[in-house]
Design goal:
By secondary structure, this protein is mostly beta strands. It has four helices and ten strands, in the order ααβββββαβαββββ.
């Protein structure tokens, strides 16, 4: 009788004597990767995509096709209209609040330059790298905990003279929008948080206090 290439005979052990010749394994064949797309969203940490498509479907017990899409992180600093992104939505760089004592504050030229401020965030996620580093200059990262509320100070010279904001402070973000931060001094320590509110009169507690850089 006819030889059916449905693989059922491999389970019932009654394949035709010439099954392997009549029903050879046909592997999956995919195209080359496309060029990387632009970032999915401008002005925030997001991803870009490259894709490929199936040229030949696998048959007769061949391995399934590999992934047809890959994603990689990216940040786009320009809107689709060609204007520069608001600095508040760029990932925040933070360090320990104690650094403020050692950092020289920029002198105000006319005495009218705006004083600093603080922003409270709720930590949503952080990478294991925040807890795995044992260098003395990274110990402050152990105070970062998911669910904690942290206070981040915006001081000179991180306070931009034109915008009067620090990069990554979340000004202009939507309610409950996830914003990204990166710990300075340990590229393996980063995560997301949500902006709660801004404090113009800054009174951050000493333990959960950090600085925008």
């Amino acid at each position: 009788g006819p030889c059916y290439c449905d693989q059922a005979c491999l389970r019932t052990l009654d394949c035709c004597h010439d099954y392997n010749q009549t029903c050879p394994v046909i592997p999956c064949v995919v195209s080359q990767w496309s060029a990387w797309s632009g970032c999915a969203e401008p002005c925030q940490t997001t991803y870009r995509v490259q894709t490929r498509h199936i040229l030949q479907e696998p048959r007769n017990g061949a391995e399934p096709c590999p992934a047809l899409e890959e994603r990689a992180g990216c940040v786009e600093y320009w809107t689709r209209q060609g204007t520069e992104c608001k600095q508040s939505l760029i990932p925040a760089l933070i360090t320990t609040g104690g650094f403020g004592k050692a950092r020289k504050k920029r002198a105000a030229a006319d005495g009218k330059e705006r004083a600093g401020y603080c922003v409270e965030f709720q930590l949503v996620s952080l990478t294991p790298g925040c807890l795995q580093s044992h260098h003395s200059y990274t110990l402050w990262m152990r105070h970062l905990r998911e669910g904690h509320t942290v206070c981040v100070q915006c001081q000179h010279p991180a306070l931009h003279s034109r915008s009067h904001h620090c990069s990554g402070d979340g000004t202009g973000s939507k309610e409950n929008q996830l914003l990204h931060w990166q710990a300075l001094g340990n590229p393996r320590c980063k995560g997301t948080w949500r902006r709660i509110h801004q404090l113009d009169t800054c009174s951050c507690p000493p333990v959960h206090s950090f600085l925008f850089i």
